[in-house]
Amino acid sequence: MPVLSVIVPVYNVARYLAEGLDSLLDQDFRDIEIICVDDASTDESSAILSDYAARDSRIRVFRHETNLGLSAARNTGLSNALGAFVAFFDPDDLVEPDMYSSMTDVFRDPEIDVVFCGFRTFPNGAVSLQDFPGNVALEPKDFLKANDHIHSRTDMSFSWRMMVRRRLLETCDLSFIQDIRIGEDAPFNLSCTLHARKVMMIPKPLYKYRTDNAGSLMSAKFKPALERSLSLQFSEKKRLVKKFSMDEYTPVTKDMSSDIIRRFVPMLLANAGNNPYRHVTAADVKRILNLDFVRDACDEIGYKNVFCSWKEHMFYLAVKLRCVRLVKKLYFK
Fold first, then answer.
1. 242 Cβ partners below 8 Å, 6+ apart?
2. Whether 269 contacts 285, CB under 8 Å
3. Could you say which DSSP state residue 69 is in?
4. In terms of pTM, does the model score above 0.85?
5. Distance between CA atoms of 249 and 141, rounded to whole angstroms?
6. Which of 5, 91, 164, 267 could form a disulfide with 81 if both were Cys (CB 3.0 to 4.6 A apart)?
């Protein structure tokens, strides 16, 4: 049995796939299986996977007959993983040669179930380290309470910067929510963290995240699944926060609500405006303002100004009071 299972969802990434697989195979940690799940690719990805699997027995390939999305592909990988530990990798990215040796070494502490690391974007080389205490094993609530901005700084996002003990996933029946096609990482990461016995952060940029892939899902101007995905994402995050009594810790709930208003309401409005099939209407804006998670966020914030300028605060008040025409005028001027 391998020590580590690395799950790689693959969909039409032929341009980057070989480089990504080489990055995994060149790891100094050798006791690894690489589970590639081809989510019904229509480019040369399938042929590349077959070639690599024929050359290296550490690569196992599974294929979906139809495109089911990133969450489903990762779940297929999870159901076939054999390693004691599980990590995730997006095939247009790269990893530092010592990433998995550094992370698996942390699990020498038998109580640690989840490990995070930082990342570096490329080609620009910007470093991102999560705002958690480094190199110290903490209980989940203490780990999360050390960071008042786990939502707004996306410090619970990106499953590829997390490694988790597979026993935890099986015991707690943890997997990705298949209907969430955008932002699926955040609720999964939060769930793994809260269910863990102890969590640790390695304050090093061990993962290399590509930012110039024009074909990635997040690069698309119009995302049909965005509204439903965000609704499901925040419903799950709210459930987890309440289940583990994190809702009693105000900074976490305030930050989640602020993130919804500051980042996701504009994202939803922009998405409606980018719909190639219709022009944005007052009905579209009204629907967004009446989404349950948007209304809950406004109730949580109240009338407090949590924004950088009064102009932004006025926009928020228009959202809170559901002034459809004013929001439409302010945003789509």
1. none
2. yes
3. -
4. yes
5. 10
6. 5
Q: Are 116 and 133 in contact (CB under 8 A)?
A: no
**Residue with structure tokens 């809170």?**
320
CA angle 271, 236, 168 (to 5 degrees): 125
Q: What average pLDDT does range 114-135 have in this prediction?
A: 94
CA distance 14 to 16: 5
Residue 76 has pLDDT above 90, yes or no: yes
Structural domains of the chain, ranges and CATH numbers in brackets: 4-218 (3.90.550.10), 249-331 (no CATH)
Hey, what long-range contacts does 125-133 have (CB within 8 A, 24 or more apart)? Answer: 127/205, 128/205, 129/203, 129/204, 129/205, 130/155, 130/161, 130/201, 131/155, 132/201, 133/201
Task: Map tokens 């990635």 to a residue.
Answer: 216
Tell me how far apart the alpha carbons of residues 18 and 32 are, in angstroms, rounded to a whole number. 18
Phi-psi region of 157 (alpha: psi -120 to 50; beta: other; left: phi over 0): beta
In the numeric block, which tokens belong to residue 179? 């209907």
Assigned token pair, 282: 């007052």
Beta strands in the chain (DSSP E): 4-10, 32-38, 59-63, 85-88, 94-95, 112-122, 127-128, 162-165, 198-210
State the sign of the Cα–Cα–Cα–Cα dihedral 164, 156, 196, 98: positive
How does pLDDT run across 227-272, given as a tens digit for each residue?
Answer: 999 999 999 999 999 999 998 888 888 999 999 999 999 999 999 9
Q: Could you give the CA distance from residue 119 to residue 276 in angstroms, rounded to a whole number?
A: 34
Cα radius of gyration rounded to whole Å, the chain: 21
Q: Is 196 helix (H, G, I), strand (E, B) or coil?
A: coil
Where does residue 123 rank: exposed (0-12), middle (13-18), buried (19+ CB within 10 A)? exposed
Are 258 and 152 within 8 A, CB to CB? yes
Residue 290's contacts (CB-CB under 8 Å, 6 or more residues apart) are 322
